[in-house]
Amino acid sequence: MKALLLRDIRLAIRAGGGFGLGLAFFLIVVVLVPFGVGPQSELLSRIAAGTLWIGALLACLLSLDRIFALDWEDGSLDLLATAPLPMEAIAAIKALAHWLTTGLPLVLAAPILAVLLNLPAAGYGPLILSLLLGTPALSMIGTFGAALTVGLKRGGLLLSLLVLPLYVPTLIFGAEAARRGVDGFDTTTPMLMLAGITCGTIALLPFAAAAVLRVNLR
Amino acid sequence: MIPDLGKYADAVMSAYAVSLLLLVLLVIVSWRRAAKVKRDLEEIEGKGQSDG
Amino acid sequence: MASLWEYANPKKFIDTTSRFIPWLFGSALICLVTGLVWGFFFTPDDFRQGSTVKIIYLHVPSALMAINAWLMMLVASLIWIVRRHHVSALAARAAAPVGVVMTLIALATGAIWGQPMWGTWWAWDPRLTSFLILFLFYLGYIALWEAIENDDTAADLTSILCLVGSVFALLSRYAVNFWNQGLHQGASLSLDKEENVHDVFYHPLLICIAGFVLLFIALVFLRTQTEIRARRMRALMARERLTA
Description:
The complex is a heterotrimer. Chain A is mainly α. Chain A contains 9 helices and no strands. In chain A, helix 2 crosses helix 6 (87-116), helix 3 (41-62) packs antiparallel against helix 6 (87-116) and helix 7 runs antiparallel to helix 8. The longest helix of chain A is centred in the middle third of the chain and has 30 residues, at 87-116. Chain B is mostly helical. The longest helix of chain B has 43 residues, at 9-51. In chain C, 81% of the residues lie in helices and 0% in strands. Chain C is built from 6 helices and no strands. Chains in contact: A-C, B-C. Chain A: The chain crosses the membrane at residues 12-37, 43-64, 96-121, 127-150, 157-178, 190-213. Chain A: InterPro entries: Cyt_c_biogenesis_CcmB, Cyt_c_CcmB_bac. Chain A: Belongs to the CcmB/CycW/HelB family. Chain A: Keywords: Cell inner membrane, Cell membrane, Cytochrome c-type biogenesis, Membrane, Transmembrane, Transmembrane helix, Transport.
């Protein structure tokens, strides 16, 4: 299992592995928003928390088809399927690798990009915590979506359509937690809901993703 | 004949128009596709029987 | 012939439903005409909402059917996963576009109804927002069916998507309620005596709901027949190509 994890991480970090892609996209979104809504710092600080969450979510979305695509194309996915590792574990490891190479870097980049959007000081802690709690869910849900579209040639757009409604609850609670933190309100409820979603998806979606992979590998 | 809908006439009429239009379109499209597929299948099955 | 055996159950479905379809469409039409005419012409205006209350006869039934269509797809998907009855999988596929249209009608009538009441064409009210999300789930489901060539693979993948989607749709409902406390009136149809919808509107509304339900069943029967035939056609054409 560890071998698979390390292999995926190495593949992602290699040139062409898409490691920086998510971060770059995150930066692009954050830079574009002020151009879209205007540079007034008061406005930006009000929408900062939500914008950062959306940027992180979209950056995750962008990198999802890499989870299985490369292995599918060169046949390694078929080989993995015959390995002694259960498919559920493969799906979970893939999600973990995605989170480590995409989600976690986004969490680390968020406070830096938050400066560009004038996030109020009180908001930094809750923002980082909410992203830390929520991005694993995004990776796991995304892995499920990637498994669904793994065989399709132009699967990217369909993948986005399938995954986005699934992302809504995570986004709602995550952004709510970050926003409440900015205003100094209690963030316990949304944080707990977020943690619940992450735990739930990690516990259940590997089974769904595995079932889907088995179907696609038939 | 139409009751006095007052100031909301536009809202009510457009709501009814949109809904009924969508329903009618759905039914028509479903019927037409059903008829077409039925026809095409009969054609293929007829061809198969005359060849086989 | 292997394919003939496979056809046995679907064929029975077609034979059985063919008898009911005309009656279902007919009675749906009668209910809809009765309910809508009664509601439109013969009910009073609401004290607060004026004549816009008449939109209820379209908004509530379509919203109910939007949800029920998805539930039916969920059940059909489960039956496919467990029992592998092709008719089930195809029925789910057939129901989805009907559900989409119902959702659209619910959204359109909801928005139009809301505009004079709330002063805005679209308010991110929890009920409407949940239907918007449901609309996206429907689109994804339909798109997945269309994207996959192999029928059995498509049936398997879409049924799993429906399952997972249902959980998330439910979760979204609560999330959206949490996110925005909302302008919508409370559940307008409750089974206990505390009806928020006044009696005078209730009866034509029930008839409209019945009409929508009958229409849904009629359409799903018709469309499932089409899916069964289309699938058989694809199988025959594939065989033709192999033996040509």
